[in-house]
Design goal:
The protein is mainly β. Helix content is about 5%, strand content about 40%. The protein has one domain. Strand 1 and strand 2 form a beta hairpin. The mean pLDDT is about 75.
Amino acid sequence: MLDALRGLTMRSTRMLADDDVVTLAFGLQTPPDQPLRRWSFRVYSIAWRIQSGTRLIAGSEDEHDVLRETVSVLDGRAVQAVSLRPTTMDTTFDYGDHELRIFPVTSVADPRHWQQWSVRTPSGGYVDVGPGATWSRRGAPGERKQ
């Protein structure tokens, strides 16, 4: 499923702050030669960073004002690859010259904890990564479970 994100362009990258929780909300835009498909992507994890080569651009614990300015560096960049380590759920979104790296903050798959990140598919279904080293898939409204 993550391969479906390759080639999609980031747009409307923004940071939402609610108390101590920082949420990155991204809109993924389909290339012009493909039918319109709406994807949305949210990072809920409190451990993430955006980097370019050896330069750290933003980290989840930066001041909110700084984050609001710096997360937009991903706008207009196409996802080149997504890699996920199954044992830890460390996830890297590769944009060519930039990367968004997400790290789980707990090893416990406790359902009381939030997922690390999630992506909403064009059909309205979700893939949730976390808590801990777990992932799950939620169907679209009206979709039958397989």
